[in-house]
UniProtKB/TrEMBL annotation:
<dbReference type="Pfam" id="PF13328">
    <property type="entry name" value="HD_4"/>
</dbReference>
<protein>
    <recommendedName>
        <fullName>HD domain-containing protein</fullName>
    </recommendedName>
</protein>
<dbReference type="InterPro" id="IPR052194">
    <property type="entry name" value="MESH1"/>
</dbReference>
């Protein structure tokens, strides 16, 4: 498939709709051209790993790796992140939560999450593993509301890891602003899950220790406003008469 020369300036969901995974991979390649060869190797290695781990996973109408690519590209392009550990962790952010056993490669593991984080620390460094741990959901208490537990976990884990906030906000933006690109029951369930988190993210983004420029923070706040508008449009629709 021939990709257009203006791919570097296209919105990511437009790339997704028009050019799919191949377009997102090319956009990622363009975004990391400024890194040195060792840094590009680490980024390519992380992308290769998540491509394998999520090879059978899908999000609505697309391969799951598209989501991971958009999270990384958003940090590179819109957030101006040049910290390779953070981009690597962004690519890997769902690996431990979704595929711990495959990461470890052993069917008999007492604590798959801890073992999987150990594998990431070995391959990509302790800091990457720590960032992935901060954005990995814990086991839920079945006696409590899952969404409430999720909100508590997000607030607590991101409180102590400023760079993990950057990863999680990019993930949230892809899920929130991108909710209109989903289909089926996931649209409403995602809106219910994510709408109460908008004020939590606003508070985290505007903190002085969140390592982003003021211009980037304003951009993210605009995106959070857009996500909230879309959640409200989905959840606050008047009931249709019978």
């Amino acid at each position: 498939m021939e990709l257009p020369p203006y791919l570097a300036s296209m919105p990511m969901h437009a790339i997704t709709e028009m050019h799919g995974e191949a377009g997102l991979r090319e956009r990622f390649r363009l975004e990391i051209q400024g890194f040195d060869s060792a840094e590009r190797h680490r980024l390519d290695e992380a992308l290769e790993l998540v491509t394998w781990l999520h090879r059978d996973d899908r999000r609505s109408r697309e391969p799951y790796v598209n989501h991971l690519l958009r999270v990384a590209i958003r940090m590179l392009h819109h957030y101006q992140v040049r910290d390779v550990d953070v981009i690597v962790a962004g690519l890997l952010h769902d690996a431990v939560e979704d595929h711990p056993v495959e990461l470890v490669g052993d069917g008999k593991i007492e604590d798959p999450t801890a073992a999987a984080l150990g594998v990431l620390a070995e391959r990509f460094g302790a800091r990457v593993a720590r960032l992935v741990a901060a954005v990995t959901n814990p086991l839920w208490d079945p006696g409590r509301d899952r969404y409430e537990q999720y909100r508590e976990h997000v607030a607590a884990s991101l409180e102590r890891e400023p760079w993990a906030r950057v990863i999680k906000v990019s993930d949230f933006t892809d899920n929130g602003v991108g909710v209109i690109h989903s289909v089926g029951p996931k649209v409403e369930s995602s809106a219910r899950k994510y709408r109460p988190l908008v004020p939590v993210y606003r508070g985290l983004v505007t903190r002085a220790d969140t390592p982003l420029s003021e211009a980037v923070k304003r951009h993210i706040l605009d995106q959070l406003d857009l996500a909230e508008q879309r959640f409200s449009a989905i959840l606050d629709q008047p009931a249709h008469p019978a």
